[in-house]
């Protein structure tokens, strides 16, 4: 990781793969395996089928986005992977373990749409929270926190309180906190959903850099097509009621798909728009969309 | 803080407003002015209009009595204040502990809910004669118990509410961290509840003084503010009775301000004034 931080944005696919491999004891092992998962919510008006027969594999080091309209169960699926809810049927494994065991072993880091910082703790203390809970010695904690805050560009804000930061900065603190224990898997539920468009694009670029640096697999929930296309190796398009996987669209952005190569210029390349169109058509049920790719919704 | 506020006002070009300093001065001066006017009118009624000194002692004679009886006023404040303080501390500790139990186990909540509702509506002073005869005429315990019961209710209710203020995203986070219940309590539940607990204690502080004082009207050892007020009034020394009332108000204010200060100290965070 240390050489990746200092390195340029030059494409290094082999190195990225090797980096991910050195973290996982078994390189062939997938980060997330979802097999035949159903989720039914009991509500006052009856049962709601949130997810129906979901099968999905996320490889180690892979960036996968879940996209779909509201109510398609994308957040529910992420919560099941995180073991924050239990599936009604089917199995979920994270790095070969049950999702519960993976949670207890802290195999993943997580970030939500709300930053969810503790308002009475400083930025540094918020990032240190998971380390503190898991008994990391205070000297190690301090150096790790400093390193993380440097990574998300908030080195000067360690002693501030969350309410003194902008929404984008708070979200960066939340991402630093999610990365605190160097997880091999990062779960993100619309982490940029509440940010303005400019901040959002900046955060996306930073996330691409950070995920390339850490080599972690990412499951990223969003309802923005350009965001999914820009960030992902594969985009999982979901449909609502009941939540199903409609199509999985692999992203082929340029000759070289390494994450490190995804820079701001990518947003203006032809392949980017082609991929946006592909995801868009998948979302609309496979039928070609009449208007040009440029008319796409931006959020 | 004031610097950022004024620069913000300058840069955004808002319509002219009072400067923070004027506002702060006004906040202090305005109530004092009202007090002076009321006292002046009162003195005017007695000395010029000629309302009987017997019915309504003038502020001047009350102050005179206050100075003349300062020694007994001070010792009375000490006695009543001690009772109120012991009651406040014990009642608050019980309130916080029981609220923690009720928040943790819903069965405890359901068991205690009717009891708390009953305690909240009992006119606490109605217990005074009963407790006085229970613990004997020379014991301060009955008064302390009454102050404790009076303090308990607001502390319990506020603390319980505070324990229920954790947000779903924080609870999810704690679950994702596989934090045990002790850790959740220490890092999330208690800090979330802290402002609510302190508000409860602040409300309880005035109630503790009032109940400790009123409990003295119903017998028990002499010497507190309450018993001195009733004795003075019974012997038609109205100005002296009023002097003790003034002392009671001062004691209540002292308790309130002390808890307010505690709240400020505990909830104080980094010096604010950073950019938002």
UniProtKB/TrEMBL annotation, chain A:
Which residue stretches belong to region Disordered? 1-31
**Keywords carried by this UniProt record:** ATP-binding, Nucleotide-binding, Transport
The cross-references to Gene3D superfamilies, in alphabetical order and at most eight, read: P-loop containing nucleotide triphosphate hydrolases
Which residue numbers delimit the ABC transporter domain?
32-265
InterPro entries from the xrefs? AAA+_ATPase, ABC_transporter-like_ATP-bd, ABC_transporter-like_CS, ABC_transporter_ATP-bind, P-loop_NTPase
One Pfam family matching this protein = ABC_tran
Select a single GO molecular function from the record's annotations and give it: ATP hydrolysis activity
Write the protein's name: ABC transporter ATP-binding protein
Automatic annotation (TrEMBL), chain B:
- Which InterPro entries does the record match to this protein? MetI-like, MetI-like_sf
One biological-process term from Gene Ontology? transmembrane transport
Give the PROSITE patterns listed for this entry. Answer: ABC_TM1 (PS50928)
The record describes its membrane topology as: Multi-pass membrane protein
One Pfam family of this chain: BPD_transp_1
Q: Which domain of life is it from?
A: Bacteria
- List, alphabetically, the Gene3D superfamilies matched: MetI-like (1.10.3720.10)
Protein location: Cell membrane
Indicate the segments forming the ABC transmembrane type-1 domain, all copies.
Answer: 73-266
Q: Which UniProt keywords apply?
A: Cell membrane, Membrane, Transmembrane, Transmembrane helix, Transport
Entry similarity comment: Belongs to the binding-protein-dependent transport system permease family.
Protein name in UniProt = ABC transporter permease subunit
């Amino acid at each position: 990781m240390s050489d990746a931080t200092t390195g340029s944005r030059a494409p290094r696919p082999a190195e990225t793969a090797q980096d991910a491999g050195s973290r996982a004891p078994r390189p062939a092992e997938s980060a997330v395996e979802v097999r035949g998962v159903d989720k039914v919510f009991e509500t006052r008006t009856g049962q709601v089928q949130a997810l129906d027969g979901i099968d999905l594999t996320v490889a180690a080091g892979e960036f996968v986005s879940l996209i779909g309209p509201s109510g398609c169960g994308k957040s529910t699926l992420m919560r099941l992977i995180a073991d924050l809810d239990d599936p009604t049927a089917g199995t979920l494994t994270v790095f070969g373990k049950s999702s519960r065991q993976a949670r207890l072993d802290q195999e993943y880091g997580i970030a939500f749409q709300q930053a969810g910082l503790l308002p009475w703790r400083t930025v540094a203390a918020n990032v240190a929270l998971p380390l503190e809970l898991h008994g990391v010695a205070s000297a190690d904690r301090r150096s790790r926190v400093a390193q993380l805050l440097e990574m998300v560009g908030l080195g000067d804000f360690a002693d501030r309180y969350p309410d003194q930061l902008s929404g984008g900065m708070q979200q960066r603190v939340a991402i630093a906190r999610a990365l605190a224990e160097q997880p091999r898997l990062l779960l993100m539920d619309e982490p940029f959903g509440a940010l303005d468009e400019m901040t959002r694009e900046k955060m996306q670029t930073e996330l691409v850099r950070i995920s390339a640096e850490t080599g972690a697999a990412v499951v990223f929930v969003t309802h923005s097509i350009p965001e999914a296309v820009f960030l992902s190796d594969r985009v999982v398009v979901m449909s609502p009621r009941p939540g199903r996987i409609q199509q999985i669209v692999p992203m082929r952005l340029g000759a070289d798909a390494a994450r490190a190569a995804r820079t701001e210029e990518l947003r203006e390349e032809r392949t980017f728009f082609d991929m946006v169109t592909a995801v868009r058509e998948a979302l609309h049920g496979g039928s070609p969309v009449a208007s040009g790719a440029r008319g796409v919704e931006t959020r | 803080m004031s610097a950022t506020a004024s620069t913000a006002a300058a840069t955004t070009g808002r319509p002219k407003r009072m400067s923070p300093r004027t506002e702060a001065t006004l906040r202090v001066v305005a109530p004092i002015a009202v007090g002076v006017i009321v006292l002046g009118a009162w003195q005017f009624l007695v000395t010029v209009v000629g309302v009987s000194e017997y019915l309504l002692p003038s502020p001047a004679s009350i102050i005179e009595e206050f100075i003349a009886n300062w020694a007994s006023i001070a010792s009375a404040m000490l006695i009543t204040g001690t009772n109120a303080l012991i009651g406040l501390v014990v009642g608050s500790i019980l309130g916080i502990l029981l609220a923690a139990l009720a928040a943790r186990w819903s069965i405890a909540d359901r068991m205690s809910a009717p009891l708390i509702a009953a305690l909240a509506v009992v006119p606490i002073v109605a217990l005074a004669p009963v407790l006085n005869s229970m613990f004997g005429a020379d014991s301060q315990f009955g008064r302390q118990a009454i102050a404790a019961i009076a303090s308990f209710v607001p502390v319990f209710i506020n603390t319980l509410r505070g324990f229920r203020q954790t947000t779903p995203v924080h609870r999810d986070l704690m679950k994702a961290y596989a934090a045990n219940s002790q850790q959740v309590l220490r890092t999330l539940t208690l800090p979330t509840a802290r402002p609510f607990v302190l508000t409860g204690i602040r409300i309880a502080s005035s109630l503790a003084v009032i109940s400790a004082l009123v409990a003295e009207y119903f017998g028990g050892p002499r010497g507190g503010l309450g018993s001195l007020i009733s004795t003075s009034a019974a012997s038609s020394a109205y100005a002296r009775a009023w002097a003790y009332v003034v002392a009671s108000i001062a004691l209540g204010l002292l308790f309130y301000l002390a808890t307010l200060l505690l709240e400020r100290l505990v909830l104080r965070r980094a010096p604010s004034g950073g950019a938002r």
